[in-house]
């Protein structure tokens, strides 16, 4: 199975800010065996960096933890796509749905590829579902 993974979903695997989306851990076990493919826009790493830096500034992560987390994220078996080709579609989606431009990039990739989307963001999940891009099924 191929699925888009967004920043909120991936970070939940490392930072316990809420529940890990159903099926995400099993999906990544499948990625490790080659049965599944995780894809994301390169924006994922930029968004993750922003979250990690904010947590460091609030003293929720030490410098070492922040650097280690970013290293782990860079090593995750995710195939990245440039986000620029999805800008126009993401702009339309953001305006139409009220999503942030960032979330709309992930949705645009999922729609373009015709694949499901893992997210921990309830608004993004709801919009994806309305667009026919649901949560991956085990």
List the topology elements.
Layout: E1 2-5, H1 7-12, H2 24-33, E2 37-41, H3 43-57, H4 63-75, E3 78-81, H5 87-97, H6 101-113, E4 117-118, H7 122-130
Parallel strand pairs: 1-2, 1-4, 2-3
Helix pairs in contact: 3-4, 5-6
Domain PIN: 4-128
Cofactor: Mg(2+)
Family: Belongs to the PINc/VapC protein family.
Distance from N terminus to C terminus (CA atoms, Å) equals 9 Å
- The helix content, as a percent range, equals 55-70%
The gyration radius over C-alpha positions equals 15 Å
Q: What do we call the CATH topology?
A: Rossmann fold
Element-by-element helix/strand order: EHHEHHEHHEH
CATH fourth-tier homologous superfamily: 5'-nuclease
CATH class: Alpha Beta
Largest β sheet strand count, sense and barrel closure:
4 strands, parallel
Q: How many helices does DSSP assign?
A: 7
- Contiguous low-pLDDT stretches (5 residues minimum) are none
Tell me, briefly, the overall form: globular
Secondary-structure-based class equals alpha/beta
Overall number of structural domains: 1
State the CATH architecture: 3-Layer(aba) Sandwich
Strand percentage: 5-15%
- Provide the spatial order of strands within the biggest beta sheet: 3-2-1-4
Mean pLDDT comes to 95
Question: How many beta-strand segments?
Answer: 4
Q: Quaternary arrangement of the chains shown?
A: single chain
